[in-house]
Amino acid sequence: MLSDAELSRYARQLPLPGWGPDGQRKLTDARVVVAGAGGLGSSVLTCLAAAGVGYIRIVDSDTVEMGNLNRQTLYTTGDIGKLKAPAARDRLAMLNPDIEVVSLAESISGENLSDVVAGCHLIVDALDNLPTRLLLNEVAVSRGLPLFHGAVYGFQGSATTVVPPQTPCLRCLYQGAVPGKVPVVGVTPAVIGTVEATEVVKFLLGMGDLLTGRLLMYDGLGMRFSEVKVKKDPDCQTCGQHHLPGGKPGR
Amino acid sequence: MKIRVGLSYLLRQFGGLTAEPDTMEVAASTPLECLQVIVGRFPSLRQWVYDKEGSLLTSTMFFVNKEKLLPREFASTLKDGDELLIVLAFAGG
Ligand SMILES: [Zn+2]
User: Fold this and answer.
1) How many contacts, defined by CB atoms under 8 Å, are there between A and B?
2) What's the ipTM?
3) CATH classification of B2-88 is 3.30.420.10, yes or no?
């Protein structure tokens, strides 16, 4: 049963076809980890907390810097010098006190991957570098956890959704990425983070068509969205049949 | 073999080609050959798609008729009228 406060808070989304109290319950019961509380994370976290996702774990080891504030809208000038994960948690707790938000101020590595995703139903990739994204992808594939991916560069963005084991994974898609510090204007992670959050909400509610096997490409300058198909690589180092946990086929 | 080749905005931006049309016609028979022809036409693209030894950078992605190629398909034969899209992968957040 939703409380009176919840009925009031979610009054504009509950009437949506396929939503209602049962749909809202699916969000309340969901446990989600968001890796990265930067530009993409600011957008994803705000959307998921506002929609009523019941448990959100924020993973980020950085501290807030002045140069983050053009795009990382979770933070204020007064947050400069604070750890992002707890600062983001406090901000989201003010936005929606009916949900549980937990912060983990650690950088993601092979050592803490299990802790990062422990007990969560899905993973949001709001990171800023490919190696860590591929680590998250590995744990997503090995545990069968859906992974919601977005990336940005300047006015350009992209997003896709991985649902193992059926769909292509991030390693099927990416062999590398442009290195170096990425210039970003705040509107781009706002768009792409919102796409990721849309995918999460649809997944949790079982609504619509997911971005699986598709890469959404956003060009903010031309103001065009386009999409391309991505296929599973049978020889993928992460999800290919020879690389899945449990050993080689035929054994 | 006439292939219509598109370059992603980022690739055109890095190569200083944003004023160029975003697609062009190329006579070549594989995605890798198409890229060679285009880099020959616009040498400013070279450093964004090849390393110093001339090997393809792993951030270079090819899509044919809106479907991503696996790396082992980069040298596969294209058909007349195929549309090739060359994109630089990015991972900022
Ligand atoms: Zn894969």
Assistant:
1) 90
2) 0.95
3) no
